[in-house]
Amino acid sequence: MPIEVWSRGDADTNMDQRILVRLAERVRAHPWWHSRTTLARWLLRREGVLAPARLLDTGCGWGSTFLALESDGYQMSGCDISEQMLERLDAPQRRLAVCDLTQATAVDETFEAVLAMDVIEHIDDDVAAARQLCRFVHPGGLLIISVPARPELYGEFDAIQGHRRRYTAETLKETLQTAGFGGIRLWWWGQLIYYLIRHQRAEKKGIPGETPDQTYLRYLELPGYPVRWLMEAAFCADRWLTRWGVCRTGTSLLAVARRPA
Question: Does the reported pTM lie above 0.85?
Fold first, then answer.
């Protein structure tokens, strides 16, 4: 199926496309992205959005969430500002579209649920992006969103990824409310790995003259075993703490919201 064009923008202003294109396999295998995908699946089930519901994965990028939900039997559509990345994700019968969330789109359809997993922090006008997300959600339908949290963690890794900001619970909720969403509920994620991430980000890893994807790859490096087992156990425990609703802080925020019927 040809890749559609809903709207166009400059992909490199959101994130260097070399990171997207060259590191997709490494990212999809990383325990952080595995955890995020697991939590997205959990929230869909929790909210009663079950396969074969029609879903839109915005900023589908590396495809970690998109491919998992496709394998679960959902009717998936995916959009991203990076046409290069979509070309690598493309396959027969797979619906993909180029889309800049800050621009008017050429489609007028809605979905039972829309996902925006670590998307709006890449965009200068996050409220405009959230308004477009709201237009994609069927009236009464669901938005699932994740964002990086705790502004004090902002550092080189965020800058390389094109992050404009990290959120607090209050700023995320305000953004979604301003965009027209209601019924907003928030969960912290990453309480156990917060101090690990803070330690990791305290010292810059970039080397003068290297490309952003080379620096990014250094941040993705995982320790050897048995330390890696401990890290993976921490990620697993963090997911359960989020599900139980006992996290009071973390490295990320998850939210569900509804478009008014």
Answer: yes
Whether the Cβ atoms of residue 95 and residue 4 lie closer than 8 Å to each other: yes
Tens digit of each residue's pLDDT, the chain (261 residues)? 899 999 999 999 999 889 988 898 889 989 999 999 999 999 999 999 999 999 999 999 999 999 999 999 999 999 999 999 999 999 999 999 999 999 988 888 999 999 999 999 999 999 999 999 999 999 999 999 999 999 999 999 999 999 999 999 999 999 999 999 999 999 999 999 888 777 777 778 888 889 989 998 888 888 788 878 988 999 999 999 999 999 999 999 999 999 999
d(CA 224, CA 239): 22
What residue has token string 């290297």? 210
DSSP label of 69: H
Separation between Cα atoms, residue 251 and residue 71, nearest integer Å: 28
CA–CA gap between residue 84 and residue 177 (Å, rounded): 33
* Structural domains in the chain plus CATH codes: 4-258 (3.40.50.150)
Residues 6+ away with beta carbon under 8 Å from 199: none
